[in-house]
Amino acid sequence: xxxxxxxxxxxxxxxxxxxxxxxxxxxxxxxxxxxxxxxxxxxxxxxxxxxxxxxxxxxxxxxxxxxxxxxxxxxxxxxxxxxxxxxxxxxxxxxxxxxxxxxxxxxxxxxxxxxxxxxxxxxxxxxxxxxxxxxxxxxxxxxxxxxxxxxxxxxxxxxxxxxxxxxxxxxxxxxxxxxxxxxxxxxxxxxxxxxxxxxxxxxxxxxxxxxxxxxxxxxxxxxxxxxxxxxxxxxxxxxxxxxxxxxxxxxxxxxxxxxxxxxxxxxxx
Length: 269
What we know:
By secondary structure, the protein is mainly beta. The chain has two domains: 2-135, Sandwich (Immunoglobulin-like), CATH 2.60.40; 141-267, Immunoglobulin-like, CATH 2.60.40. Helices cover 12% and strands 57% of the residues. It contains four helices and 16 strands. The chain has helices at 2-11, 90-102, 247-250, 262-267, and strands at 13-22, 28-38, 45-47, 50-56, 59-66, 69-71, 76-86, 105-119, 122-135, 141-149, 169-178, 182-194, 200-210, 213-223, 232-241, 255-260. Strands 1, 2, 7, 10, 11, 12, 13, 14, 15 and 16 form a ten-stranded mixed beta sheet that branches. Strands 3, 4, 5, 6, 8 and 9 form a six-stranded antiparallel beta sheet that branches. A hairpin with a 2-residue loop joins strand 8 (105-119) and strand 9. It is elongated, with a radius of gyration of 23 Å.
């Protein structure tokens, strides 16, 4: 019986539609997951709660507690409520975050779950392991959609109230496109903006919470006077995060092309 149940469980799939990561700390975070078990065959079963290892491209980085799961021929919804996750290997965890931020696709492996499965009035003790295929953020893509410089009353690509931060101050609004199932709170992060020659023309800072799909973010910054920039290609590069968390490392993975608008270019002159 154990071998039959192991075979059925091995052939099932776990499809993840939503991963939310919040409350980033130096060595932990809070995570919730919405997923569905499919291809569970016509054998109704109950899988006991278990702890699995989370593995990314550089191996195990944490453990995750899974709830009791009741399956039918139609599969089963698997909801994991907010759970504190302690990072066991920071290098492996950073490699996982790097992959989900930059890659088009990646694999998250659940391994070594010691579990009891009840089916047909009998119990089987087996080992749960599953590969979960995820869409990555592919960058993510960033569009600079609005710039308001200090004292600007509106108009052009910077319409709206001007900021009051002194000479060279501005507020940028960006739209981030995230095709992955990951929603993540990054806290207060900072970026440098580079011109087409790779020179730093400005820096900015603000709260960043990445939603699935499109999300809008506003950050305040200051230009580097005299460097110069033209309307056209530029780059936004993550430089750090406040709070002494692992985000200070992961935000540095972000380096995306943007289009420098007229307001920002003029402010750099």
